Amino acid sequence: MRSFWTTADLLARGKSEREIRRAIEQGRLTVVRRGVLALPGTPDLLLRAARVGGVATAVTGAAALGLWTPPDPPPDAPRVRPHRTESNRLHVAFRRTTTRFHDPDDGSRPLRPTPAVVLHRTPADVVAGAVASGIAPPLTMLEHAFRALPPEHALAILDSALHLRFVRDADLPALAARLPARLRPVVLAADGRADSGIETITRYLLRLLGLRVEVHPDLPGIGEVDLLVEGRLIVELDGKEWHDDPAAFERDRHRDLVAATTRYRSLRFTWRRVLFEWPLVEAAVLAALAA
């Protein structure tokens, strides 16, 4: 979907400079930076990335596309597992030839070095092809996510992109080839069946422990579960949205009761536990398997 026009594109399409000025005066276009104009309703994330001098990528691009992205730690979350806040960090893909950047909130000011803006050097043709949408191409966006985030968080974004069909399984080898060798196995562990980022993260971290983890198995008398560990431990995961759905609460508790009458054991974890208290999750799983 187009969010931006460049002045050069409009002139090439036969628009005059006078027509462009009139569109700006009438609010049909907004000046973002020199030579780049935005259409009404363009998301703020994309405007800020364009103002800096590039296009949204990594977590910023993923959020703009509606993919799963890591939530910020709640104020009372214990600092058991390192988790950097990403919602206030702007990831921008820029042309390798770009030398001048601007403040994301005031294009008249130069960009000062800050951890709040993460710049990703990108081939010029890739950025040029993405100016209209304001978002880096999916494989570029995912490459930058893997370079900037913990592996399990980047994998969760990749799973979300697979699930929503922004990329295909056939694209995974090409993405892996762009990354350092240590990250290639992570990419190839992607599974587009994942319903949520915490499901991906749990699956990945449990497999790192050497455990066998099945995704969405359909168990007799119980139905489909999130994960089955070592063929006998059901792991169910509750996302942020789960708390607002009383029907889902009752349905899940019924499934837990049914599971308790079978040969399976069942554990249920919230998104907070998975993201911010992983050692407790890991210990609970290992204890349940040892029982």
Question: Features of this protein?
Answer:
four-stranded mixed beta sheet, three-stranded antiparallel beta sheet, Endonuclease, Chain A, 2 domains, elongated, 14 strands, Restrct_endonuc-II-like, AbiEi_N, 291 residues, alpha+beta, 18% strand
Helix content: 40-55%
How many domains? The number is 2
Name the strands of the widest sheet in spatial order: 9-12-13-14
Overall pLDDT: 90
Question: What's the total number of strands?
Answer: 14
Describe what this molecule looks like in 3D.
Helix content is 41%, strand content 18%. The protein is of the alpha+beta class and 291 residues long. The chain folds into two domains: 43-192, no CATH class; 198-290, VSR Endonuclease (Endonuclease, Chain A). The strands form five sheets. The chain has a four-stranded mixed sheet, with helices on both faces. It has a three-stranded antiparallel sheet with strand order 1-3-2. A three-stranded mixed sheet has the order 4-5-8, sandwiched between helices. Helix 4 (58-65) crosses helix 6 (138-148), helix 6 runs antiparallel to helix 7 (151-163) and helix 7 (151-163) crosses helix 10 (197-208). The longest helix has 15 residues, at 246-260. It is elongated and about 75 Å long. The N and C termini lie far apart (53 Å).
